[in-house]
Amino acid sequence: MEMTQKTTVQDGTGDAAAPRGELPDAQAVADSSRPELGSVELELAGVNKVYQARRGRVEALRDVNLSIRRGEFVSLVGRSGCGKTTLLRILSGLLPPSSGSVTANGQSIWRGASRNDEALKQVGLVFQEANLFPWFTIAENIGLPLKLRGVDRKARAERAEELCDLVGLRGFEGAYPRELSGGMRQRAAIARALSARPSILLMDEPFGALDALTRDKMNLELQSIHAATGATVVFVTHSISEAVFLADRVVLLTPRPGRIRSVTSVSLDRPRSADTEASAEFQQIVRGLRVELDEES
Known about the structure:
By secondary structure, the protein is an alpha/beta fold. It is built from nine helices and 13 strands. A seven-stranded mixed sheet has the order 1-13-12-4-11-10-9, with helices on both faces. The longest helix has 18 residues, at 212-229.
């Protein structure tokens, strides 16, 4: 296996990603290795974020520069308060940067304090809580973004069925959120984020509230979803092991103000299994990141 590469500069390779929205058969996913990466899809240049709080000025992010390639899976880690969620909210159009530029496929996500909704059409967002509407069925929840875009009922139902199959919820299309476990509800939330076939999927600790066994299972499911959709994923987590298991690169942020301390390339073969975490290569990467994190204490 290739050794880990650590850098603070964008280091991606490849010419093309898998076609969006086309689902390969199970064997194709199982046989896939590291996905080929395409051109830069997300880029942050000189991003700063300052809050004006009652106690004064709070600098959340300072001079963040990061390029993420099409089809890449990038994990963000760091201590609580380092700005991981702030960075994700800026990428998702929920929070404007104080300065700097943020682009998706060359389109600016922010124009001053105004967000560019056209650029954000290609972005899906998954929170720590599933946030499903309890009065809608699973299929209706999944199809809601399409309904808001004017897609007809039949097409919404077909897309919901397709996505339920992808995330392992086949047969639960007509169920209500209260009838599903926490892990199943989060699968539905991921399916909802994928309903409009986004090229970019932003995930803010989506498995943080799940028990350890369910979380491990969801990590396996997520890498299959990533392989099947070809989406570019930015994943926020407090777990270094989870970050390394899922990612092509792990971005470590310093304590406030959040700056990029290092970017670690993860060259472990895909698909990854539970045995991957026992490998010497995996443990070496995790130990190295923990040492860096401890140095920031």
